[in-house]
Specification:
There is one protein chain. 45% of the residues lie in helices and 14% in strands. The chain is α/β, with parallel strands linked by helices. The protein folds into three domains: 3-49, Transferase, Pyrimidine Nucleoside Phosphorylase, Chain C (Transferase, Pyrimidine Nucleoside Phosphorylase, Chain A, domain 3), CATH 1.20.970.10; 72-331, 3-Layer(aba) Sandwich (Pyrimidine Nucleoside Phosphorylase, Chain A, domain 2), CATH 3.40.1030; 335-424, Aldehyde Oxidoreductase, domain 3. The strands form four sheets. Strands 1-4-5-12 form a four-stranded mixed beta sheet, sandwiched between helices. Helix 4 (52-63) crosses helix 10 (213-229) and helix 8 (161-171) runs antiparallel to helix 9 (179-192). The chain is globular, with a radius of gyration of 21 Å. The protein starts with a helix and ends with a strand. The model has no long low-confidence stretch (mean pLDDT 94).
């Protein structure tokens, strides 16, 4: 079989066989598919989609390109459970959730990605921490999970390497939003991690890949169906991403917010708190350590409030090469942008809408994301104190604070953020943070 003929079949809307998909996955991995062919395959799938059988086959093909971790030899005294988000603006949930879950007795080997399109990546956030090794070897990864309870790293050369190449191609070919490619990308890494269970956070709204509820439901149902058919018990929550999650957007700035959240400094953003604890409750229940998600949430809240989760986060950072005193002196180890400018409202009223995608694009334009796969990321830039929906504002009051490398960058970001935030004479009703639960 020639790769171009397989691509042609998908381009023309035909269902590919498991053998054809396996050949494509091998070609992505071993380089026998050119960059143009990988991009063409991604674009064909974007427009033509895939059946559930094709999605399972692609997931398995990407997984088979590397090793699958086996945790049984470590005799862990708890289940191996992970969470993954489909991506959003200001989504730093993994930074808090992994240590919360570990504090409740789960073991969390979290393999995360870098920023994709307008959304930030957990890997880029952790890379902002001085010394933190986002690409340790497998032996170190296993050791940290066993001794600390969680480790958040990026893909290694051994785990689903074919997906890493496909992931980078999607980022620069406008094929990020393809549900079959999202499903196979996420699940290939999670299956390779040797999990006992997975909880998915499927974002829905202007800041997510799924900008409609129907698309989010399609993605959540596909993730649950494909994962369970591949032998990985999975539950999905659909959560609101029609505005920034939390108050900070940008890699180092989101780490700051995560640390403050774990330490209980200031008021925890209510939407960020709601989704973090909802996911924690699901993870704990899926692992059999609580009889229900509600009971799991109660356990999670206790671990957060008594400081156990913060302690585990600090231990994880140190175990992966970061500073031993990061929790106490995080600002010392994170970059700071040289230009800090207020972005203010131009009229009075209420914040009635926010295009979170455009807010994310503003951060990318500051240098906090990538326009090309090999672009460097400035960890210090971004936004803080982002105003929430429903908030009353007056002309000249703060919409956010812009952290930029130059004055010109700050001015461009201010214009983009102002255009992304809609101010009207009255506030509009909000939709719930957790919109739907999808289970097998």
């Amino acid at each position: 079989m020639l790769p171009q003929e397989i691509i042609r079949n998908k381009r023309d809307g035909r269902e590919l066989s498991g053998e054809e998909i396996a050949l494509i996955a091998r070609g992505i991995h071993d380089g026998s598919l050119s960059e143009g062919q990988v991009a063409a395959f991604a674009m064909a799938v974007f427009f033509r989609g895939m059946t559930t059988a094709e999605r399972v086959a692609l997931t398995k093909g990407l997984t088979a390109s590397g090793i699958t971790l086996d945790w049984t030899g470590l005799a862990l005294p708890g289940p191996v459970i992970d969470k993954h988000s489909s991506g959003g603006v200001g989504d730093k949930v993994s930074l808090m959730l992994a240590p919360i879950a570990a504090a409740c007795g789960l073991f969390v080997p979290m393999i995360s990605g870098r920023g994709l399109g307008h959304t930030g990546g957990t890997l880029d956030k952790l890379s902002a921490i001085s010394g933190y090794d986002v690409r340790p070897d497998i032996a170190t990864f296993r050791k940290v999970v066993r001794e600390v309870g969680c480790a958040i790293i990026g893909q290694t050369d051994d785990l689903a390497p074919a997906d890493r190449r496909l992931y980078a191609t999607r980022d620069v070919t406008a094929t990020v939003e393809s549900i079959p490619l999202i499903v196979s990308s996420i699940l290939s890494k999670k299956i390779a991690a040797g999990l006992d269970g997975l909880v998915m956070d499927v974002k829905c709204g202007s800041g997510a890949f799924c900008d409609t509820e129907s698309m989010a439901r399609d993605l959540a149902e596909s993730l649950v169906a494909v994962a369970n058919q591949a032998g990985l018990p999975t539950v999905a929550l659909i959560s609101d991403m029609d505005r920034v999650l939390g108050r900070n957007v940008g890699n180092a700035l989101e780490v700051v917010e995560a640390v403050e959240y774990l330490k209980g400094e200031g008021t925890r953003d209510p939407r960020l708190h709601a989704v973090t604890l909802a996911l924690a409750g699901e993870m704990i229940a899926l692992g059999g350590l609580a009889p229900s998600p509600a009971a799991g949430r109660a356990r999670a809240e206790a671990a957060l409030n008594d400081g156990r989760a913060a302690d585990i986060f600090g231990r994880m950072v140190a175990a992966l090469g970061g500073p031993d005193d990061f929790l106490e002196r995080s600002n010392r180890y994170l970059g700071h942008a040289p230009v800090v400018r207020p972005c203010t409202a131009e009229r009075s009223g209420f914040v009635a809408g926010m295009n979170a995608r455009d807010v994310g694009i503003a951060v990318v334009a500051l240098g906090g994301g990538r326009a090309h796969a090999d672009d460097a990321v400035d960890p210090a830039v971004g936004l803080t104190e982002v105003v929430d929906l429903g908030a009353p504002v007056r002309a000249g009051s703060l919409l956010c604070v812009v952290h930029a490398a130059t004055d010109a960058d700050a001015e461009r970001a201010i214009a983009l953020v102002r255009a992304a935030i809609r101010i009207e004479d009255r506030a509009l009703p909000e939709r719930p943070m957790i919109m739907q639960r999808i289970a097998r």
